[in-house]
Recover the amino acids of this structure.
């Protein structure tokens, strides 16, 4: 193989950031604020990661449904720094469940009481569980929603059996878990469920639920971050394939590019169908054998078929764990989940709720009518509906089918679920596949959390702010991405000579 071109960093030491999602952009901006030279390496052709957007006739909108919570303090602080705090808007919503051919709204107390699949006793236990309320022996432990990580080793379904009823588990919690994790629902930890309930509790009152969504979409946040980083400090289509260190052997043998890998895990369209993640082989690092004086020296970056060695003072990986493994040899024992999302542009509204968990047979587990939270006028009058499915195995036909087939068949399912739905209202559709949408938060998944500082397992000067990081346990959130990016920027900003 041709020897890579070597690019020398400036004397103050450049810091590489791998991955151009929210965590990576936050880390890069923070480092720039601290006066450090930064370069962001994004393997794909777009920034944003899970917050990436697609154009509409009006404002851009997310490729997958993504929202914020009223408790997202890290996002609120960042928005204030960026001057966009006034664009974070709280929006009232309603959630529901589709079962037995009927869409039931289940937000207001009266709606919950009317739900036919639960008895009055079941509904009491469901309310106690959702609110984290303990009535002596009845309901969840008092600390459950405040310290969900305590229940990492407890199966979510077993927790519900112990602290609610079998009907609450079967009729409410199981459909919710299947909508998020598909066939992995039975192995999900109670820590994830309780973390999810805690976020919902923060955004709920007697009459309505709420979300926080930026005016102008997540492009508002992304554009402000990119401005803080500087476009000139971002390299698109730049795949980090290896990490070289001093004080020992390379942390990872440079992997030959197979043309299949990227750090985001996104497959934007059929033309990118082979870009959903590589299986390049790297030489794994034995954590017990890592030399204490091993330090990050340079990154090996592939772009347009050319490999370049880039000197760095430190590196922040803001990627799914698979990309970290591929570049450094770090061995991660967890699993990630994939998802397929179809965004339909409709000429008329379909749902009475913002979000609908689909318990009946369908190729998707969740419907989100985005324009039941945001005025359709923001999208030139189009009503935007997401249909989302978790995919555990990429041999799944929903992953393998081309975009037209997925959109057509999922449109067929909408007709089957809603007899009054007029197929002619579908004006356009966009299909997005995300290979690594986040960890599968299985029982015991706390053991798979990747620490922010990888000095002991990879090399000094290597940091991790990705989807499996400490800040993203026990739930992946945008707020967690911001916290991870900030934390790693603080660590990476320490001068190389001062790192212990």
């Amino acid at each position: 193989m041709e020897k890579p071109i070597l690019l020398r960093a400036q004397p103050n030491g450049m810091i590489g950031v791998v991955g151009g999602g929210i965590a990576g952009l936050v880390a890069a901006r923070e480092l720039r604020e601290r006066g450090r030279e930064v370069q962001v390496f994004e393997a794909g052709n777009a920034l944003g990661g899970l917050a990436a957007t697609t154009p509409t006739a009006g404002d851009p909108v997310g490729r997958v449904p993504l929202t914020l919570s009223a408790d997202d303090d890290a996002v609120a602080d960042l928005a204030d720094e960026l001057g966009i705090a006034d664009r974070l808007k709280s929006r009232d919503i309603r959630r529901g469940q589709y079962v037995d051919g009927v869409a039931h709204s289940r937000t207001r107390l009266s709606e919950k009481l009317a739900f036919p699949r639960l008895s009055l006793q079941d509904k009491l236990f469901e309310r106690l569980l959702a609110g984290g309320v303990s009535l002596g022996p009845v309901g969840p432990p008092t600390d459950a929603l405040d310290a969900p990580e305590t229940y990492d080793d407890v199966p979510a379904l077993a927790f519900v059996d112990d602290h609610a009823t079998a009907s609450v588990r079967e009729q409410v919690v199981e459909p919710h878990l299947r909508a998020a994790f598909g066939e992995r629902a039975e192995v999900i930890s109670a820590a994830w469920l309780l973390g999810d309930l805690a976020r919902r509790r923060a955004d709920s009152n007697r009459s309505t639920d709420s979300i926080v969504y930026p005016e102008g979409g997540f492009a508002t946040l992304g554009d402000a971050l990119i401005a803080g980083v500087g476009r000139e400090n971002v390299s698109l289509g730049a795949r980090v394939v290896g990490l070289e260190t001093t004080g020992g052997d390379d942390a990872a043998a440079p992997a030959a590019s197979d043309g299949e890998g990227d750090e985001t895990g996104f497959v934007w369209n059929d033309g990118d169908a082979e870009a959903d993640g590589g299986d390049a082989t790297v030489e794994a690092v034995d954590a017990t054998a890592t030399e204490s004086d091993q330090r990050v020296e340079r990154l090996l970056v592939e772009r347009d078929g050319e490999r370049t060695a880039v000197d760095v003072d430190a590196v922040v990986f803001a990627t799914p764990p698979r990309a970290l493994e591929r570049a450094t040899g770090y061995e991660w024992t967890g699993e990630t989940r994939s998802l397929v999302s179809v965004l339909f542009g409709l000429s008329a509204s379909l749902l009475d709720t913002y979000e609908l968990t689909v318990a009946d047979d369908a190729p998707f587990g969740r419907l989100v009518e985005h324009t039941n939270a945001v005025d359709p006028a923001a999208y030139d009058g189009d009503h935007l509906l997401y249909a989302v499915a978790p995919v555990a195995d990429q041999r799944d036909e929903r992953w393998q089918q081309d975009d037209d087939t997925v959109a057509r068949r999922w449109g067929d399912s909408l007709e089957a679920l809603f007899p009054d739905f007029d197929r002619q209202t579908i004006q356009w559709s966009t299909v997005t596949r995300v290979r690594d949408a986040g960890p599968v938060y299985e029982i015991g998944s706390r053991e798979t959390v990747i620490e922010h500082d990888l000095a002991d397992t990879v090399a000094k000067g290597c940091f991790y702010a990705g989807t499996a990081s400490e800040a993203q346990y026990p739930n992946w959130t945008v707020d967690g991405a911001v916290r991870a990016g900030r934390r790693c920027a603080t660590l990476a900003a320490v001068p190389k000579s001062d790192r212990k």
